[in-house]
Structure formats: structure tokens, C-alpha cells
Specification:
The protein is an alpha/beta fold. It contains 17 helices and eleven strands. The protein folds into two domains: 144 residues, 3-Layer(aba) Sandwich (Rossmann fold); 164 residues, no CATH class. The chain is 48% helix and 15% strand. The model has no long low-confidence stretch (mean pLDDT 97). The protein binds NADPH dihydro-nicotinamide-adenine-dinucleotide phosphate, 1-deoxy-D-xylulose-5-phosphate and manganese (II) ion (MN).
Length: 380
Amino acid sequence: MKKISILGSTGSIGSQTLEIVSEQGDIDVVAMSCGHNIGLFEKQIRKYHPSLVAVWEEKDASDLRTRIGDLQTEVCYGLDGLIRVATADAAEYVVTAIVGMLGIRPTIAAIKAGKKIALANKETLVTAGHLIMPLAKEYQVPILPVDSEHSAIFQSLNGQENQKINKILLTASGGPFRGKTKEELKHVTLQDALNHPNWSMGRKITVDSSTLVNKALEVMEAHWLFSVDADQIEVVVHPQSVIHSAVEYEDGAIIAQLGTPDMRLPIQYALYYPQRRPLSGARLNLFELGQMTFEKPDYETFEGLQLGLDAMREGGNMPTVFNAANERAVALFLQEKISYLTIAEIIRASMEHVTKIENPNLEEILDTEQLTYEFINNRW
Ligand SMILES: NC(=O)C1=CN([C@@H]2O[C@H](COP(=O)(O)OP(=O)(O)OC[C@H]3O[C@@H](n4cnc5c(N)ncnc54)[C@H](OP(=O)(O)O)[C@@H]3O)[C@@H](O)[C@H]2O)C=CC1
Ligand SMILES: CC(=O)[C@@H](O)[C@H](O)COP(=O)(O)O
Ligand SMILES: [Mn+2]
């Protein structure tokens, strides 16, 4: 049996990881965590029998203990709880399906405990990639990409590190507002932004896809995962989301991974790599698809993409400022407290405000996050 822990089992990636567990039948979930959705969490605990679980708040932990008093499962909470789940003794893999920078410390703890990381939580690499990647090397644990584009790149590289490549072609759907002008984006609603054309995902990443901030985060994620510079990563808008990304080799050959928009494949690939396993579900039918199209991104209208690339080029703690500002701005947008275009405005203002730190350590990254939040809280 393969033994795994899941950080964020109640979310989109977490739930699909559990679908893989059910379908494959040879994975044991030894520990898992959620935030606040303890109704769904209880059902998952009863079905998958982890021996350790964590929730975010103490009151939810005590509620959950009452709900599952008939089981042997230990319930813990808070950051310590997340770290306990991430380092659970029996686990060989940790699926980081939690959203946001909150994933940094549990991921670091998991690496130090020698766990293989199936990484969905891109915010951790964006903000702390310079700490995470060397740490993973030191502890000899693989960071296996779950993000669909990065899994596609990983598959196109055939798992071999240090292959000489010309560039990565990172595909983007373009989101629900592809082709719109800035003027037209002034009055789009939360429901409009949550209406992704191809993928069904958590709310935060769905908004990120609509602003193309997701693509900026993914460029940074690819930089850390595959040791490529910014100018070797080309964002290609591909509205059908069929080519999940590609690699151009030195001889001009382009190798890509294609498929239906189904995150279960990259999750399964990460957990079984280098093995491929059967997987249920719809197959890509090229005749039904008919055609694939490609466009350049509109960096002016989707300012978040340009700001992310600027933050990456600036380096230091700027990706953290970019990411933290986006996390807070998207949270405000999800609460319908700010308008859509204010997301990019908040990111830009934060990047102008927060002082740059070269090569930040973990404490400085977390301080930068707090400073960014304080700046935003005082102004919006
Ligand atoms: N969804 C997708 O298809 C893809 C997602 N990703 C990345 O994967 C990560 C997860 O995304 P997704 O599954 O969509 O997100 P969801 O919002 O669907 O799920 C997030 C998970 O994190 C948990 N969580 C949130 N806040 C806390 C907290 N304070 N303490 C503990 N747990 C918490 C949630 O718990 P609860 O709901 O119980 O509060 C939930 O289990 C993100 O980094 C995203 O960018 C990458 C590629 C594709
Ligand atoms: C499924 C997945 O990996 C998402 O990150 C997806 O890429 C979002 O699509 P776009 O950001 O390309 O709209
Ligand atoms: Mn992606």
C-alpha cells in the first residue's frame, strides 16, 4: 500500500485526490487536514479512515471530536496540526492541496521529514522556491508537480532532469474574459469571474485564472521546478485547454502532453510516477475537437500577468509581495468588497510600497506577507 497525507482534503484538488484513492484501491490515507468544512471532512474521515486529522480552528476541532467520537482518529488543529499531518510518520507522500502561502511551513516540515511532495500549492514555490528546492535536494525528496501545466512539462521531459531545452510553452486558457478590454472589465461580477471556460476548481484559483495572475504564478512555479529562466518560458493562450503545456528541445522538437481538462490525471501521475496507471473518464477526441487555436496574451488588459513577471524579474521578496497582495485582493473580491480591476491595483500598489529584500529567509518571507497585508488593510 502507498501511504499518503493530504493537506486540504476538502478542496477541489484534495477531493480529486481522494477519488484517485478510491479508484486505485492501493493507497492508504494516513492523515489529512481541512480548513472549516468539517461536514464534508467528517464524511471523508468515515470513508478513508485516517488515524490523524487537522482542522484550522480549535472550536472546529472540538466539534469534530464530538462528531467522530466513535472512531479512533486523533484530531488536532492550527498550524501545528497542519505540520503534524504533513509529517505523519507512516506517510510516504504529502499532497499539498491547501491554498495559499499557509502551505509554506507544512511543506518545509514535510521535506525535512523526508516525505515526497505532490505539489499543487503553487503559492509555496512562488514565495519560497529558493528555500524549498535546495531543501528538497538536501533531503533527497522529489517535488512532483500536480499543477496541470507543470505535470504536462514534467511528462514532456519524461521525468529526466537537466535536459537541455530551448524553452517551455506554458499554455493558458485566457480565462472567462479573454478578448475583453479593460473598459469592459470595469463592471464584471464575481459570478462572471468564477465562470471558468474549461476547468472546475477552487474559488481563489478560478479568480486567478480570470486575471491571468494564475499564469504569472505558474511561470514562477515552472522557473523553480524546472530551473529555467523567465525568458525561456513563453505563455501561449490556448482557449481549448487541450495542450496542457509543452517543451521545445534544442533541435526544435516540441513535445507536449494533451488531454481533457481533468486534474485526476496529474494527481495520479505525481503519486505513481514513473508508472502510468489506467484512469477512468472521458478521453480526448480530436475529431470532436476539430481545431486548436493559439494567441499571445494581452499583457495590458491583464495587468496581473505583467506585474507577476515584473516581480519575478525583480526577485528577492517581490514574488512574495505579489502573491500576498493577490491573495488578500482576491479574498476581498470574493467577499464582494472590491471591484474586479482593484485586484491588479492592489497588487501594483503593494509592489510599489513594500521594501525589497534580496534573498529573504523564511522569517523575512512571512514578515513580507504581514507587511503586505497591513498595507492593504490600511488602504482598502
Ligand atoms: N483546483 C485545481 O484544479 C488546481 C489547483 N491548484 C492549486 O492547488 C491548491 C488548492 O487549490 P483548490 O483545491 O482549487 O482550492 P480549494 O479552495 O478548493 O481547497 C483549498 C483547501 O485548503 C483548505 N484550507 C483553506 N484555508 C485553510 C486554513 N486556514 N487552514 C487549513 N486548511 C485550509 C480548504 O479547507 P476548507 O474548504 O475545509 O476550508 C481546502 O481543503 C492551490 O494552491 C491552487 O492554486 C493547482 C492546479 C489546479
Ligand atoms: C487546472 C490547472 O492547472 C489550472 O491552474 C488551470 O491551468 C487554470 O487555467 P488557466 O489559468 O490557464 O485559465
Ligand atoms: Mn495550472
